[in-house]
Amino acid sequence: MIKKRVAATVVVKNDRVVQSLAFKTYLPVGSVDTIIQNLDRWGVDEIIVLNIDRTSNGLGPNIEIVKKISSIPISTPLTYGGGITSVSDAIDVISSGAERIIIDSLFLKSPSDIKIISEVIGSQAIILSIPFKVIDGHFFHFNYLTKIFTKLDLVNIKQYEKIISELLLIDVDAEGDAGSYSNEVVEFFSEVNIGLISYGGVGLSSQGSELLDAPSVNAIAYGNILNYGELFFQKVKKSLTKSKKKLRRSTYRDKI
Amino acid sequence: MTKIGIIDYGVGNVNSLNKSFKSIGFKSFKSSDKSVLKSSEVLVLPGVGSFPYAMDRLQQLKLDNFIINESKKNKPIIGICLGMQLLTDSSEENGDHPGLGIIPGKIIELGNSDFHIGWNDIDICKELNFIKKFNKYEFFFNHGYVYRGHVKNILSKTTYKSNYFASAIIQKNTVGFQFHPEKSQKAGLQILKSTINFLLKSK
Questions:
Q1: How many domains in chain B?
Q2: What's the angle, vertex CA A45, arms to CA A119 and CA B193, rounded to 5?
Q3: What is residue A155's DSSP assignment?
């Protein structure tokens, strides 16, 4: 049976890992390789690197970081997002060691290019990131570069059902506040036939298991809380005990 | 020390694969040059991409016939994910495209706009020691197309939505994994090691 994933998100700014609070405040955490080495050793299901200052600084993807992570080496699936705007960017990221890429601002700037990228690296390798806000029961797509938000248009997103394989739904306001992820957004997206990754504000709360109960939620991503203690990933797994059967068993103690 | 040649054709996570082999004690290198790859004892065909694009790349680099010829000479070959799919006769991804034809069978869509992404376990179907011990272990998958072929070529199967598909296939000295062993933590690295040792012994 396919298992639901518990992913670790590593937010990178100026080549360092940062703690992100509601896309506004960033606190330094440490070096990328040390943090990723820990996540790999703990046996997280997937590592998602979000390099948040590439597009805003007019830079392409951070190939050096992807190469550095692969050289550790790690044996955990790696997803990278940040600064990818073309087919060659996507190829560079994949050949440097990631299995999947995250598209963010390209969706707002030049959405037709996403299909072109998918024809080369395959739809299975593309995740579309949608940072969102909930205002008076309505859902808005938050453009973190311009800080403008526009109403989420599901008819438009449905067109990507064969072009991308998953949506990373980031609850912008909930980020950094445990148990406050919008359950409603999962319901809102239920008519779209694309698997979801919920990220932002789940924390060590019972909300994790509630989200995993939704058929469309393939994964939950945790960020900040994984950075502050040895084997913190196991604490996250404990908070998801109710969902134990849906998750991969812990393997960090395995000797084979 | 066994020399593993990773075929670098611009489609796939060659960098991480190269490091993985080194971490399990093999000497590995990546190259797109036939004459360099020829010196390897085991060839690895990785792949993260679409089938038609990947076949085009192999043809452009004249690596398609090279791989077929090396296979005829009984060189052990391991295909990973899309690399596994390319070893078969054909794929229906974005049209109908011929593959390398080393492992009989074809690649078909998993289901309408469906993807199999994440960790899933494998059921070993063959009494072969090198893989038997990995029965029920979980590996990382990321694909929307699957292998359809003869049962004699199926090493392991994996269940998805009440159906199952081949998660590992074999034909003589060629093994293909639909999952990413290099990104499946301890079990993944061990299955790679075990497969390479098996293929070298049965050479």
A1: 1
A2: 85
A3: H
Give the domain CATH number at B24: 3.40.50.880
- Go through chain B and tell me how many residues it has: 203
Q: Which of B49, B160, B183 sits opposite A76 (nearest CB)?
A: B183
pLDDT in tens, A210-221: 999 999 999 999
> What's this model's pTM, rounded to 2 decimal places?
0.96
Cα gap A206→B25, rounded to integer Å = 43
Which residue of A lies nearest to B112 if distances are taken between CA atoms? A162
- How confident is the prediction for chain A on average, in pLDDT? 92
What's the confidence (pLDDT) of residue B46?
Answer: 96
Mutate to test the interface with B, among A76, A94, A216, A247 (most CBs of B within 10 A): A94
Give yes or no: B81 in active site.
yes
On whether residue A31 sits in a domain, the answer given is: yes
- List, for residues A148-204, the tens digit of each pLDDT value: 999 999 999 999 999 999 999 999 988 778 889 999 999 999 999 999 999 999 988
Contact A73 B118 (CB under 8 A): no
Among the listed residues B81, B93, B97, B143, the single catalytic one is B81
Residues of B in contact with A159 (CB under 8 A): none
The CATH number given to whatever domain includes residue A122 is 3.20.20.70
Burial of B136 (0-12, 13-18, 19+ CB in 10 A): exposed
User: Residues near A238 by Cβ (< 8 Å), separated by ≥ 6?
Assistant: none
Closest CA to A5 of B103, B25, B140: B140
Evaluate the CA torsion angle A59, A63, A66, A69 in order and state its sign: negative
Q: Which of residues 18-37 of A touch B (CB under 8 A)?
A: none
